[in-house]
Amino acid sequence: NTMRDFLRDLPKCEHHLHLEGTLEPDLLYPLAQRNNIELPEQFPKTVKELEDRYKQFKDLQDFLDFYYIGCEVLLKQEDFFDLAWAYFKRSHSQGLKHAEVFFDPQSHTSRGIAIETVVSGFQKACVKAQQELHISSKLIMCLLRHLPVEDCKATLESSRVLFETQQLHGLGLDSAEKPFPPELFAECYETARTFHPDIQLTAHAGEEGDASYVSNALDLLKASRIDHGVRSTEDPELMARLARDKVMCTVCPLSSVKLQVFQDVRELPLTEFLNAGIPFSLNSDDPAYFGGYILDNYVAVQTRFDWDLATWEKVVRQSIEGSWCDDKRKNELQ
Length: 334
Ligand code: ES4
Ligand code: ZN
Fold this sequence. Notes:
Layout: H1 2-8, E1 12-14, H2 25-34, H3 47-53, H4 60-71, H5 77-92, E2 96-103, H6 106-109, H7 115-133, E3 136-144, H8 149-164, E4 170-174, H9 186-193, E5 200-205, H10 211-221, E6 225-228, H11 236-244, E7 248-251, H12 253-258, H13 270-276, E8 280-282, H14 287-290, H15 294-305, H16 309-321, H17 327-333
Parallel strand pairs: 1-2, 2-3, 3-4, 4-5, 5-6, 6-7, 7-8
Helix pairs in contact: 1-15, 5-7, 8-9
Bound molecules: 6-chloro-9H-purine and zinc ion.
The site of 6-chloro-9H-purine has 10 residues, from helix 4.
C-alpha cells in the first residue's frame, strides 16, 4: 500500500498522547490479574467484549468512565514502564520519531501510588525508547480538571522537584472540559511557571468547550499550545490570533470522530487551519480506545483530504517546528 508506506516514512512527532490511553484491552486483563485488581461488576469480562464496547462512545464522559477504570490496573513501577514501552514499540513501527506524552498523576495518587513511582516507570521507558528506538520524548503532567482545584494544587506541589530536575517538561489540563473552564486553574499555572524557566504549558480546550475555552487558556493560563482547539473556527478573531502567535493545535482525528465531536474525519477544520496559517499536528490521543496509533490517524486524514506532497511536507515541518525539543533535535528530525 503506497499511501500508507509514504505516510509511515514521514518523520512524525506526537504531541497529544495520554499514556494511560495506550492501555490495550489485551494488557488490561493480564495487569488486573497480576495486581489482583477486581474490576467493577458491570465491566466487560473479556478482551472481545471490551473491544466491542470501545467501538463507539456517546461522548467524552462516556469514554472517560472506561479510561479511569482502566487506570486502576496500574500499580507498580513496572506496570507504568510496560505500558509506555508498548506504546513506544508500536509507534516506532508507525514511523514515530519524537513524542511529548501526557500522564495523569491524580488517577494514581488517589489510589495511594506515589507520583515518583509513576514518573520513574514512564521515565525508564523514555530512556529505553531513546536508546533502542531513537525516539526522543518529553513528559507532560496533566491536572484533572473535574477534581477540586485544591487537589490539583497539592499535586502540583508534589511535582515541584520533578520539574526543577527536568524530569517533567510540561503541564497540561485534561478530563471533562465542561463545566470546568480554564479560569479555574489560573493559579495552578501561575505556580507552575515558578518551577522552571523552561516549563512548557498546554491545555485541552475547544473540543467539548467552545472557542472561549481556547481564548481563556491563552489569556489566563498563558498556554503556548492548545490540545484539540478544533472549535476555534467559531471565532474569527481567535483564528487570527492562533496564526499570528503560532499557537499549535494538537488535533486528534480518530478521537474526535469516536467521541462524536465530528461525524467524519472530513469535517475536521484542517483546511481552515491551513488557509488561516494556524500550525497543527496530527495525534492519536488515546489510541487503545479510539482505534488507531499515529500512522492510522495520518492515513485517516489522507483518505479524506487527499493532500499533495507539498501539504504533507508543510504539516510535517510544522509539527517538528512546534515540538518542545531543542534546535539540534529539530534539525535531526527534518
Ligand atoms: C482525554 Cl480525549 C481526552 N479529553 C480529555 N481528557 C482526556 N484524558 C484522556 N483522554
Ligand atoms: Zn487528550
